[in-house]
Design brief:
By secondary structure, the protein is α+β, with helices and mostly antiparallel strands. The chain folds into three domains: 3-160, no CATH class; 165-395, Hypothetical protein af1432 (Orthogonal Bundle), CATH 1.10.3210.10; 403-481. 51% of the residues lie in helices and 10% in strands. The protein has 18 helices and ten strands. The chain has helices at residues 3-35, 44-63, 90-102, 116-127, 135-145, 165-188, 195-219, 228-246, 251-262, 273-276, 284-290, 293-303, 312-320, 341-355, 368-377, 385-395, 467-470, 474-481; strands at residues 68-72, 75-78, 81-82, 105-110, 151-155, 403-406, 411-416, 428-433, 444-446, 461-465. The strands form two sheets. It has a five-stranded antiparallel sheet with strand order 3-2-1-4-5, covered by helices on one side. A five-stranded antiparallel sheet has the order 9-8-7-6-10. Strand 2 (75-78) and strand 3 form a beta hairpin. Helix 1 packs antiparallel against helix 2 (44-63) and helix 8 packs antiparallel against helix 9. The longest helix is centred in the N-terminal third of the chain and has 33 residues, at 3-35. The protein is globular, with a radius of gyration of 26 Å. It starts with a helix and ends with a helix. The mean pLDDT is 87.
Amino acid sequence: MTEETAKTETKQAVGQKQQKLAVNFLVRFYIVFKILRLYAENNELLQEQTELLYQNLQELKEASPEISFKVKRESIFFNQTRLKFSLANYSIFKFLLEEFRKREIGLLTIEPDISRDELLRAVNILGQKRTSATPFEEIVSELVQQNVERVRLEKLEASEKLPSPEKSAARLFFLSILHLREVSERNKENEQIRLNTTRRLIQSIFNHLVDNESFLLGLTTIKNHDEYTLNHSVNVSLLAVALGRRLGLSRAELVDLGLAAFFHDLGKIETPLEILNKPGQLTDDERKIMELHPHQGAEKLVRLREFRRLPVSAIHVAMEHHIKEDLTGYPRLKIKNDVNLYSRIVKVCDFFDAITTKRVYRKKTFTRSEALSLMLENIGTEFNPVILKTFIQMMGIFPVGSLVLLNTGEVGLVVENNQETRFLLRPRVKIIVDSQGQKVDGEVVDLTEVDPQTRKFRRTIVKEINPEDYGLEVPDYFLAQAM
């Protein structure tokens, strides 16, 4: 081994150690950050975690005399080196990245001789929620007031600022469709599928649902007829994760559920397009071919090179998502077993998205409220009662994306449901047609709003209307927010 090679290897080892220590510090920083939102500064748990954070800082100081974290694009850099995050702590990295951007912090530098108390004061200031238009200036001012001198900040460059949550959600939605198309093409060529990418997409869907569930539910009104199977699978995955969250599944379980839903129709790759898009009724032979796709989907998933990294539930869902609650449907079960929980969840979401999508072989396209009413008629036979009731509660009497006629003569688009039981009929709506019948880019109004003089509600829903009858494209209004 030459001296130069030895130096290179030593340098790499030092870099790897600094990487590990920097990531550990940020993970501990995140923990203290979250605890500060729940407890006072004298809390025992907080004191314990702050001490561990300070110890991490001492270890980091020994490995690197300079301690600075920089936000750049979708990455966090430690002393000019991009930090690599594992799947286990990826969500922590995304959280910190978004929180730094919200506060317009581009660079955080910590001087090595900072005390434990000063570090705690700094993290406390950084962790506070900000509602002002100038969060960075507000933070810097508070750092000065509380004598935090060994933490220095630089403002985030304008080009690095966080896009709107709606824009990020829409980008994620279309990235998911592109990724599923790539999966389908790779599967046809028997090439390796990037399951890590799929898993990260599902994790991001979960994060966006936590932040803005209503907008993501609105995106499921997007129906790309040329790529129905891809668009449908992404919609079903999104709805399934949202429904699983309402049912109380853990984050890890939700990611597995999202993956299973994402691949539930993979078997349709083998179904001829002339059958998938046939305008008329299928013949018996064509229906037999169509009903093969659950078997074909499960088989494709089992044959994946990455099969061991795929949740077993994905196989169940691919096979069972057309089996009804009374165990009829297809494929026919030789033994009357119980159906997997994830399969039951995906069945509800799959059915809802399918019948609210215009298809050449179906005369009627159901509105979102009509779809829920139809599904409710089949509760217990086709759908699991608990799952369906939870789905209906999540979607609301007038689901996000519904068009409603108001007693003022205006037409509104439901953009958010009211979670209070007494206000289920009073969602927030965006006015898109005024009382004179003119299309407008109106305001978002809350139907719980009361006129102080008459003490009556200003607006009330008369009925749901079909967008096709009015020549209105509902998805356009959600996409407009993402532009």
